[in-house]
Amino acid sequence: MMGVRFAAKDGAAPMLSLPPVASSADGWLLPTADHVRLTRFGIKSAGGGPHQSKTMMFDDLASLFASGQIENPAGAIVGNNLLGKPSSRARQAALYNLQQLYGVGGTDPIWRVLQGLWSREAGQRPLLALLTALARDPALRDGASAVLDASPGERIRWPEIAAAFEAANPGRLSEKMAKSLAQNAASSWTQAGFLRGAVRKERVRSNPTPIIAAFAALLATLCGFGGYRLLESRWMSVLDRPVEDRLGLLRQAEGLGLVRVRSAGDVLEVDVRQPMADQLGVPEIVS
Hints:
By secondary structure, the protein is mainly alpha-helical. The chain has helices spanning about 35-40, 60-65, 75-80, 90-100, 110-120, 125-135, 140, 145-150, 160-170, 175-190, 210-220, 225-230, 235, 245-255, 275-280, and strands spanning about 5, 15, 155, 195, 200-205, 260-265, 265-270. The chain contains 15 helices and 7 strands.
């Protein structure tokens, strides 16, 4: 179990003082991650993903949830043309992309968790969608540092996202494909509230909630993180808040029954799998 140290100055409230975190391959997965469990849960640990040709399609996902036909996405999207696509082929493509991004209509636990949290989280559903898309699209994760490491007000251009992807995957994509991927990723970060602007995009802070924090912690746990490493994982950096604020959000999520947070001395334990499984009725999270 990893430790977290607390320090206070001049009578101020205790602040987190964290020892350095050993680097992992990409900041999203630790070497100790159980890749069989990741696959079973619905997390893709390597390879390409939908962002090579699509954004995270938040409006389409929201329309599907709002339609009341979430249990029959094929009938809604293909049969009834819920999304207003111009052809049968386009309807099929939309369904396929939503399946790839979120597991729509399938049995993957990540899709069932997303369904359960969607009904509880009215304000920041784009962040729920983004976290799910990050879990299922390694290409989106590989370019994420260009956005997550930028300061508020900083301009973000697609070549910066493409460069971050290239650094993680040298020579994997042609310039044309890298541009498409980066532009689609920029659109997704905009939909999720991290970027602002249609053409000239600049970094803005996201507005996470305790439910978003709990979901991020669940993904981090499944990817091998625990204790203070969980708090500093890339999954928790999506909360766009300092480490001590991330812990505060998790403590609020504890009040919702989604997380258990325990600290004793210099040790921190975050248990999210069992509480989330119990609250959402998804026992596969702990199996």
